[in-house]
């Protein structure tokens, strides 16, 4: 572990970022050049003391998971991420760890989206990060582990995952998920994470095997869809996708037609994350009010 070089690299990368680069407010009295240490620590989900010790050349060797979090917080490129791992005494990230590194280009766009549900997914349907509105709509999928991180796996092994779609749209959505997995599986080949997921699904779901044998290959099926929220009811959305160059990750942004009922329902999502409603109560979009930025 090259403590001095690691500390210098972290300091320089922190100084190169501005709050607006990571979706933070600069505030009116800011004397720090770049991000504060506590801001980097919060973005990386670690204690400020731990991060400070790394910059002061006295911290313990970070784990791969900790380094992956730091790489995301500091918006490192793939080359910079690998350099960080080597400085900390690790080899190149394992495929599982490398797959969780979010493309900085997508993350910069997501950081600026606070009025529409948005999330970044891998080509296996794993949610890497999502904004508050996406969490209010889909639930928090970033804390899931193992195969359950994949939306494809959950779709064919957890029936409750389908409730967000109308019954008449579920077959089409299942086919779309499998077609996307096949598109990812082809280039990855045998022994890849995609291949492991396909093998696991073959063992656990006859329905998956039936759909897989259709040999449909597509990154996207539908750009317009209806989602069902347990409190707001049906919401019609248009889904825009921004892929990385290698198509291994995608930023999805959901919007609704201006002044439509679904548009008003989306505005309520920023409130639903902080307010409680009686079980089973359906919220009328007529009660929508402008989203308070403090609730985002």
UniProtKB/TrEMBL annotation:
The species this protein was found in: Virgisporangium aliadipatigenens
Keyword Nucleotide-binding: no
Keyword terms, alphabetized: DNA-binding
Keyword set includes RNA-binding: no
Name this polypeptide is given: DNA-binding protein
GO MF terms held by the record: DNA binding
Domain HTH cro/C1-type: from-to ranges: 34-81
Sequence intervals crossing the membrane: none
InterPro entries: Cro/C1-type_HTH (IPR001387), Lambda_DNA-bd_dom_sf (IPR010982), MLTR_LBD (IPR041413)
